[in-house]
Amino acid sequence: MRRLALPAAALAGTLALAGCGGSDASKPDLSVSSVYMPQPVSAADMAAGFLKIVNKGGTKDELTSVTSDQAGRITLHSTSGGTMQEVASFAIPAHGRLVFASGGNHLMFENLKNQPKQGDTITLRLKFADSGPLTVEMPVKSATYNPSTDH
Known about the structure:
Blueprint: H1 2-20, E1 30-38, E2 46-55, E3 61-67, E4 71-80, E5 83-87, E6 90-92, E7 96-100, E8 106-112, E9 121-128, E10 134-141
């Protein structure tokens, strides 16, 4: 009986450790950076927004919507070949990223309650298919702001 007790205990310990390791690595692990809105110059009730979402996790996720108390509606847009198209969601690959940048994918703010001015901050709530929502602050930059040159 003693001969079986030791191997059984070792097997139970191994299974317990296997159950603890790796489960978090298979979940999406999202973070947001490079968030900004250029100050709108013409349309007082519309603006574009840009950001980067990085997924360090081992499972893909999807950005499904963005909301803000400061906009009546925020839509997701893809730009390809100079043509802008509203989309329902954007995939964020495992160990990958989703980039919203000028001339490419972007957020479109519609029915703004106030025209954003440089120095303002807009609070966003990003919703995902699998992960919990993330709240981020979007600073309003100058209309000519270029993140690659920082002005």
